[in-house]
Amino acid sequence: MPRIQPLDPEAAHPKAAELLTGIHRQLGVMPNIFRTLAHAPAALSAYLNFAKSLGSGTLSAATREQIALAVAGTNRCGYCASAHTAMARQTGVSAEELGRNLNAKSEDPRTQAVLTFVNRIVSSRGNVTDTDLAQVRAAGLSDGEVVEIIANIAVNIFTNYLNLVASTEVDFPVVDVGQPRAA
Predict the structure, then answer these.
(1) pTM of the entire predicted model
(2) For all residues of the chain together, what is the average pLDDT?
């Protein structure tokens, strides 16, 4: 049961209601995460703008989803793992690869370098070593791509934490990531 109830769009603040209408128009559905974010119109707007900006970056949609899966797997966020598994499938990521990505693994060497770096950033709370940075650069990633990786981690940590705190009801095919780790 959710600890923060998703808002009915008609009960939302006018700014949030406007954003929710746009989401529904674009997706054809209204995922619970957006209805939960609607409690804070500024947070909903910030999230949508951040995600949209990252979508026009240099990282592919598949890579962004694989980063999201690795972050969700590390944080054991079932909502985000489920949502991003569905979205990653739409980018052509195979079912086998999706399972690996939740554990920050990949068959593709470049993606593996990205996900190893993601895992190091998340698990060290950003305190990576010179070696960690050298390894991701050795895989051919530019400093701009490194910054985009960090930005994608940040937006996904936000949604992981929101969904874990809110106990958002999963409205995608469920992916089990185990129980959230105790503090």
Answers:
(1) 0.94
(2) 95
